[in-house]
Write a structure and sequence with these properties.
alpha+beta, 20% strand, 17 strands, 31% helix, five-stranded antiparallel β-sheet, single chain
């Protein structure tokens, strides 16, 4: 009996020593597993802008003869108000004639010719990481730019402004404010047709003819956002690795890239889940779903004033999380210092805006005076696309013929069904489900003025 008691005591002492060590190892392993998953999430967010840019480029340059799309190094001119049928351009606009071009700089620089105009207009150039290379108000004289990658060495033609992109993929956009379709066709369309992109080697060649359209039926033409969130995690990171080779990131990103290269996320590397612990695979596969939810959560936690959230926003996290969020929200969108933009998702009851309810939004006279005539209030679904309606009306703007109140204020009636006859001119049709309102203002008269938007009242 004494021997048995002694053995039991020995086992108890051994367990007392071993069990905490095992528990400590379990905690350590769980912490390491969590760190691996978090590094993958960070890397996913880091690569999100350039991968989304690439998908947008593929869709928007896959040009059939009957489509509005144009090939690389040519401007696509959207010279009508966007409608509910327009799906390949993220966040379409119903207040501008917009032109954009995906420019490939691997062979040589290009010359971009921008015509002069006195109307509200803006010219912007983005690199592959969605960083802004240049943004200019279009002036009366117009301008000429030479866009080159950082590796190119040579002379810039006389009278041409040189712009440098770190890599080969760039996006150029030009927006011209229009008050109506008629105004756009008469005044903005000629400006769009005057936009030119010419290879540097053919700059003085009067016989230069751009490449013809060519459609590739194997390219997925669905929404780039849908594509990126449906992409498998291995395909995502291998695409990112390839894109980084042709589009070097800013030097400031180097410390982060050093942290993730051990996971084979680096230029020219092959990424595979097999490089990571097996107990992380399932959660890593779900990272695209997590990212989609993250962006939605960021939308929900933004501090809103009367339901409105301005375009200037910080996630309070690492810079590349904010960059990813901005790409998700604004890629191909307008970026211009004299532009005000705000979004509204909730009514005065604090609930999501929905076509089940009728709403009234009132612009005060002071805000209308501050905005001038170049403003629009647009209607989007949660994915930032227009929703078809019988009127084909997706926005109201400052030049529309509407009925103002005696005090100079303006009521906009937001509802699915047609309102009373006296309110029809001020009607912005809503879809059956949830929706987002977006206010865009070109060229504020006074940049120091703070626009205080009231609630959208149910």
């Amino acid at each position: 009996m004494k021997k048995i008691t002694t053995l039991l005591l020995s086992f108890s002492l051994a367990a007392a020593l071993i069990l905490p060590a095992c528990l400590g190892n379990d905690k350590k392993q769980e912490a390491q597993r969590h760190q691996k998953i978090q590094k993958i999430k960070d890397a996913y967010m880091y690569g999100f802008p350039i991968v989304l840019m690439h998908l947008c480029e593929r869709v928007m340059t896959n040009a059939s003869e009957r489509s509005v799309r144009m090939p690389l190094n040519q401007f696509t001119n959207v010279n009508w108000y966007a409608t509910g049928e327009f799906k390949t351009y993220l966040k379409p606009r119903a207040d501008v004639f917009c032109s954009f071009a995906w420019v490939e700089l691997g062979r040589e620089p290009v010359i971009i010719i921008v015509p002069g105009t006195e109307r509200a207009a803006v010219f912007t150039v983005f690199d592959a990481w969605t960083n802004i290379i240049a943004k200019d108000a279009v002036n009366g004289q117009g301008n000429k730019y030479m866009l080159a990658n950082a590796q190119w060495i040579g002379e810039t033609p006389h009278g041409v402004t040189k712009l440098v992109s770190l890599g080969n993929m760039t996006l150029v956009s030009a927006y011209f404010w229009v008050n109506s379709l008629k105004d756009g066709v008469k005044n903005a369309l000629p400006l769009q047709k005057s936009l030119k992109i010419i290879p540097l080697s053919r700059y003085e060649d009067k016989d230069y003819v751009p490449a013809k359209k060519r459609f590739d039926a194997t390219i997925d033409m669905s929404s780039p956002l849908k594509q990126i969130f449906n992409m498998g995690i291995e395909d995502y990171f291998n695409l990112l690795n390839n894109l980084i080779e042709d589009n070097p990131p800013p030097e400031t990103d180097a410390p982060f890239l050093d942290k993730i290269k051990d996971m084979h996320i680096a230029p020219g590397e092959d990424f595979a889940l097999g490089y990571l612990p097996a107990d992380t695979h399932e959660e890593i596969k779900s990272v695209p779903l997590w990212a989609s939810g993250y962006f939605s959560d960021v939308d929900r936690v933004q501090v809103a004033e009367n339901g409105w959230v301005s375009a200037s926003f910080s996630t309070k996290e690492k810079d590349f999380y904010e960059r990813a969020y901005n790409a998700f929200k604004n890629i191909c969108g307008l970026s211009f210092p004299d532009t005000y933009r705000s979004e509204c998702r909730t009514g005065n009851d604090g609930l999501a805006l929905t076509g089940k309810n009728n709403y009234v939004f009132r612009f005060g006279k002071d805000d209308l005076d501050a905005m001038g005539g170049s403003w629009s209030l647009s209607m989007y679904n949660p994915r930032y696309s227009f929703v078809k309606n019988t009127l084909k009306k997706y926005a109201v703007n400052g030049k529309d013929t509407m009925v103002y109140n005696e005090d100079g204020s303006l009521d906009i009636y937001i509802q699915r069904k047609k309102p009373a006859k006296t309110k029809e001119k001020n009607w912005l049709p809503s879809p059956a489900g949830s929706f987002i309102l977006v206010l865009n203002v070109f060229g504020l008269k006074d940049q120091t003025i703070q626009i205080e938007l009231p609630s959208v009242n149910r």
